[in-house]
Every structure is written in structure tokens, then in C-alpha cells.
## 1
Amino acid sequence: MKIGIVGLPNVGKSTMFNAITNAGAECANYPFCTIEPNVGVVPVPDNRLDELAKIYNPEKVTHAIIEFVDIAGLVKGASKGEGLGNKFLSHIREVDSIVEVVRCFEDSNIVHVDGSINPTRDIETINLELIFADLETIEKRIEKTKKLLKADKKYEQDLQTLEKIKAHLEEGKPARSIDFKDEEVELVNTTMLLTMKPILYIANVSEEQLVDVENDKNVNEVKKYAEMENAEVIPLCVKIEEELTVLDENDKKEMLNALGLNESGLDKVIKASYDLLGLMSFLTAGEPEVRAWTIKKGTKAPEAAGKIHSDIQRGFIKAEIVSYNDLMKEGSMQAAKEKGLVRSEGKDYIMQDGDIVLFKFNV
């Protein structure tokens, strides 16, 4: 599952990518520094694994992972091929969701591609280019569906749905903000629209803005726009986050405390991105390994077992499950069993985030 980091040139995209991944993506003060996307795989922060490690003293601890893609900066006219428009759009098509970095800080040393700081304008520049690209896609699909409709009336509903999407896009609104009926969803999923991808906004602020970020005019501009899409906004100072990545754990905690923060902004971004994809983790714990396994929300126990090994899914008998909170409260698996907190679940059980599982199987 891939998260695409997008934004106008010089908003802090590549700096944030570097801070998230420590991958050393090139970062310079001119447009289109990023041409081919940089890719980094990072662990999802999860304190539960650290706490379980204190109980089991495992040989290793393995976090869930998520993949970030640093995509070239976009400019007005990208949908018509301006700048690196065609490459930008093709790279966006390959990711599962979008993290959009919006510049909210003033700095005369860093050129803004449009000459001034205006978060709403910047967001609309990117989102409108995606909308224009989607309009082109939808218009072609409508044309094709009209031809099919001449031969078969069953395509009437498809045409109505496509025209509804077109009207919404023409109002300058992303497709993700449409409330689709259940019978429309299957068709919508086949359109591969860019504006259907879930989105998270990052308001990139200065250290000074971070002090009173809740009342910052530029950040609140981003929040107001995001509300229309029910999207989350995470304010962070990319410059500080970059500094935090080179510190050891003690110095990092000291700096976060000095800034009045419980966790780094990047940890919030990674967790929110994981959630944005509709993902969650179930856990396995023992002396060899404490591990988080990534599954989609709504996954049933046998499919979750298949994440570990296909044989476990094929020969699934049952899952012995205790919630993370119950295990930590009791202090050991044995104590949890004595309290009747370890459950035996069958094939129809829907996994919950933080389930600690032992799968029983026979092949």
C-alpha cells in the first residue's frame, strides 16, 4: 500500500519525505528537483509492541510498515502537460492515498512558485488539476457508456452515476466528497479517479507558528478547506522534524518536551496515513518475535491468518484471541486465561485492532 506525498514545488515535500524515511532524497530550492519519485518504506510507530516486548523479551520486534512515495511538485496546467504534469499524474495513479503538503510558513530565502503564501490557492491549484484530469476520464467513460446503452438498457444506471460525478467535478469538488449509494460503489471503483483517493493535509509551519498553531491563520485556512472533504489536517514544522531524525531517543524526547509535544509530527503523519488506507494491526507475541501484522479493517480471522502463512489460512481451525488492553492489565497470558479473557473465535470473527492472536490450524 503506497502513500503519495504531493504539493507545489518548494513546500517541504522532499524535506518531509527525508525526515520520514531518512532516505536522503535530493532536496533543493528550485522547482522539479524531484523528477522520478523517491520511495521509502517506514515502520508504523506502535508503543504496544514495546510494552509486549517487556513481557516476552523476544529475540526481535517487527513493526508494521507503510510505503511513502515523494512525487514531483505540481504546477498549474499539469492536467494539460505543463511542467512535469503527465509524470505527476501517472505517479499519483499508482498510489493508494495522498498526503498533500501545504506551505503555511513565510521564508524569503525559499521561493514560492506563485510568489506569495496562500494555502487555499495552493490546495486548489493541485486539487483542480486532479479534478481536470478526472473530468477527462469521466467524459471518455460517459461517451463509451452511451454507446453501450444503445445496445443494452442496463447501462442506464451507470450513465446516471457517471453524469452525477461529472456535475460534481464541474463544481470544482473532488469525487471523494460525493455520498455514493451502495449500488454505485462498484462502478465508481472501476473509474480509477484521482480525486477518489483518500487525502490527508499537512500544514507545514515555522517553529514560531508551532507555538500557537491552533490560532494560526494559514493553518486554519487549510482546516477550513479540509472540512469540506472530511479530511484530517496535521500541522507540523518539517524543519524541526528533520532535526529530530538525527537525534538519539533521549535527545529526541528532550527536544519534544521542550516544544511541549508528546510525539513527533511525523509519527502522527505515519499513523494517520496508515489509518487513511483503512489499515489496522493485529499482534502476535512470543519469545522468538513480537510482531504487528497489517490487515484491512473488516478482515475475518482466516484471511488474517493468511498474512502469516497461506497454510495457516488453508487449515484454519480457530483463533485464540486476547485484547492488548486485557493482556496488559493482567500482566501475562496465563493470568488473562484464568480471568476468562482469552477467547476462542471461528471463521466469521472480524479482527479488531490490537487483537493478540494465536492461530490454530491443521494441514
Note: Residues 23-35 have pLDDT under 50 and may be disordered.
## 2
Amino acid sequence: MRYAFSTLGVPGMPVTDAVRLAAGAGYDGVELRAHPEEPVHPGLVAHERRAVVAEFARAGVEILGVAGYARVAQAGDDEPVYEELHRLLYLAADLGAPYVRVFPGGGDQPRDAADATAARRLGAAAEVAAEAGVRVLLENHDSHPTGADVARVVAAVGHHHVGALWDVLHAWRAGEAPARTYGLLEPYLGYVQVKDCVSREDTTPVALGAGALPLGECLAPVAAHADAWVCWEYEKRWYPRVPDLAGLLAAGRAYLERGAAL
């Protein structure tokens, strides 16, 4: 397997520092949170994008993906969602990142309506993604927390440049067994986001292996694929009082490697 971490765990950290941390702790890549409050976001101009690419290239670290906040199932007009999707796709293409993460965001709409909206928008974005050489990955999140939820939408799109991102926390909290989630998402899977937390009820992040998530069960089916990416999403952005990610990275990398070898 190949290993990355998300800059959600190092909020606001300059690119140079994130790259240095990745290289120093033996991570192959970094998932970039693409929000205006972060150093890398769709508002960067061309020379700023080139500088980010050069920084990663110097360290031999890959940009795994651009973690965007487009909500493809949300109610309302399509155009603002398309605009956000396109901005994320072009950013990823300029950075050489293979993936763009998006959310469902279906709210309290009926399931069929939310699914249809998400599939329509993702289908429309698929050709742009193909031209850019990027895959859009729908994360199991909010209104669509399980693998079954995401698989319904992605299967309806039926395009290789639209896939799935498995966030192990949300499916587990929704009661879906890891083996089932993987089985449903495997045909569409881009990469896996791992994390650990205190309990199903208390999602305060902890070091990998120190919490309640069955990470061994999550890693087991992925470990059979040498080119599979696993990304540690340590949500310090939402829990500022937890320990800094920098001090946990090396042990986290070792834990993931041990889990993959089981």
C-alpha cells in the first residue's frame, strides 16, 4: 500500500512544512484540503500552482488529491455546483493530483431525489474530469454515510472518472461492516481515508490504533493491492485541543504498515 495524510490535520500549515513532514515520516503523498483558509485552494493563480508542484517534486512526495467541499446532492441550482466542481478539477489537473474529493450534502431530501441530483451533476462533470485526467470521488459522508449509499450514486453515473472515497469512520458509525463497505465500493474505489476516534458517540480523533475503530478490518481487504492508497485524516481542524499531528505521524505510518501486513 501507499500512505498519505490530509492537511486537515495541519490546518493552515505552509506547503513547505507539510511536504517536509511527509518526507520525514515516510509518507508517499499528501491530500490537500482545498479550502480558502488553507494555502492551496482554487483561487491560486498559475505561478502559485507551479510553486506547489515544484515543492512536492523536490521532496519526492505526491499530491494524492484535492479535498474539495462541493456538495453534489444539495438542493438548488446546478450551476454553482458545476462551477465549484470545475474549479476543483482544474486545480487538481494543474497540481498533477489524480483525485478530487466531493461530498453528497443531500440534507433531508428524499433518498431518490438526492441520488438523482448527485448522479446528474457527477455525470455532467465526468467528461470535464476525463479531459483533465482527474477522477471525482464521492465520499461516504453526511446524507450518504455508507458504502451502499455511495455505490448507488456512482453506479448510476457509470463513468470511470467518477468513483468513490471510503471514509472508514462514517460507514462504521452508520453500522455498516468494513468488509461490506469495501465489497460495495471496491469497483469504484479511488482511495481510503482512515482515522481513529474515542467511540461511535465521541468522534474526538486519537492516534491510529488508540481508539475504537476496527482499523484492522478496514485495512485487510485494501492491503492486497500494492498500489492502493490509504490516507490518514486526523481532524485537528475541528478539534483544536487534540495533540498536533506532527508528533504522531511516524507512529501512524508504522501502524498502517503493520496493519497492512496482518
Note: The longest strand covers residues 62-71.
## 3
Amino acid sequence: MEKIPIDVRHLQALVALRDGGSLARAAAGLNLTQSALSHHIKALEDFHGAPLFVRKSSPVVFSPAGKRLLEAADAVLPLLHQATRDLARMTQGGRGTLRIALECHTCFEWLMPAVDAFRARWPEVDVDLVAGYQSDPVALLHEGRADIALVNSLEPQAGTEFYHLFRYRLVAILANDHPLAQKEVLQAEDFRDATLVTYPMPEDALDIVRLVLKPAGIPYTRRSMALTVAIVMLVAGSRGIAVLPRWVVQTYLLRKYVSARPITEPGLTAEVWAATRTEDCDKVYLQAFMTLIRETSVAHLADVV
């Protein structure tokens, strides 16, 4: 039998490149380094003696060879997803449950596209959300109240497996006429005696506090609001500064209600992890859901790194 020099990883790489629009975003969606993804694509190009896409094009422009492989990927990958689902149903039983516990207030912009894609591929799995903000969603796994917990930090504990999903930048949200809006980048000192407008969550869970203000010994005050629109209204009225992912306030930024500025030269970043019980980590649909979170987040969100 003739050996076919194309494997599933090659097809997944090209689809991720098309959907992500760049090597960096495609690599993040596949949970690979950019160099590893480049190596996969280069090996395929070397074998066939043809480039698959135009380097440094934005958005990515594919060559005729790349377009032909994308056609194959669009035909083959859905069949493989279906086969995987069928095998999981045969070996792991019929219906499943996916109860999601959340630690963050800003999850829904990236969670909903992943849930929609998951429901399309795994219609026999019941998806549910554990209501409300959870200060310790991992505990719900071991209480039998959740199947997956989405958290902002990795805290290893017995009987729990953690999977990195993605990393993203946080930005300072300011009134358009705020004096700090004249700066290109905000430093820790710029927050001295400022009012932080935040979601109602523990102070040590705020990345701006934990990673920037406390290490620098910067005093501040705090005001909490449960709704994003309320936070934006206070910021727009010069009642404080918020620190949020850009995607949460993208609509308000486009309408020029408020302004956004980077925090520190390297940028302030946060992470999202998924946690499952060790006994559940081999459930195919749980792994599929985490993969879809990576893919959809990298493809659709601003400032994913």
C-alpha cells in the first residue's frame, strides 16, 4: 500500500493557519510553539516541492497547493471527528454530561463559541453551567457538581489534572480625557492612589493587584461592580480605572466611549486553565471541548498570545 505523506496534524495545521490568520495564532490554537508548527508545514512543503502559503501575508494567502490541501482537510477532518465521537460512544457509553464551573467574570465571550461548536459535534452530550461565580470551582469537581472547571491559575492538587488553554493580555481602561490616556504605556506607579473598578471577586484573584501593584507597593482603592456596562460607565465618567481583557470592552472601544492602554512594557498577561478529575481526563469529549476552546478563542479573540 502506498504510504501517504500527509497526516492529520498537517491538515489541522493548515486549517488553524487559515482560521487564525497567522502562524502565531494558529500555533496557540494547536497548543504548539510557533517553531513546531512551522516545522510541520515546512516538512510538508519540502516533500511536495511547493509552498503552501505566502509568507508574511495578512490575512494568510494560500498557494494552489495549500488550497488543495485545505479542501482535503475540510472533507477529512469532519469525518474523523465523527468517527472519534462514534468510538467514544461505543467505548464510554451513550450520553454524557459536561457541567462547566467558572472562576472568571469574562469567560462568556470565548466560552459561547466553543460551546456552540461542541454541541454541533457532540449533540449527545448534555452541556450545563454551574450557576454563578465560583471562588473555588475545582472543589466542585470533587463534590460531583461539575465535570470541568475553567480557572485563572494552576494550583496542583491530588486527583486533579490541569490543561493550559490560552494566555491573553490585560489592558487598562480609562476615560478618554483621563490624564493617563496621554501615555503610551502605563506603569505600576501610574496606579498610585487610583480607584480600581473591578468585578466582585477576591482581591488576590485580581492580576493587576497580584502581579503589578502589590509587588511594587502601590496603594490604591477599589470599587466593585457586577456588570461590565456598569464598570465602563464609571470609567467613562472618570470615577476610576478598570483592568480587563480587550475583548470584554471591544464594543465600547470601537464606539470611543473609553480608551485602552497597555500595562508595563512587557504587557500584563493572564492565563486560562481547565481542570478535570484525574479519573475523567480520558473522556474523549472532555478533551475535545478543551481543544475547541483553544481553537475558537485564538481564532476570534483579540489579544490572545
Note: The chain has a mean pLDDT of 87.
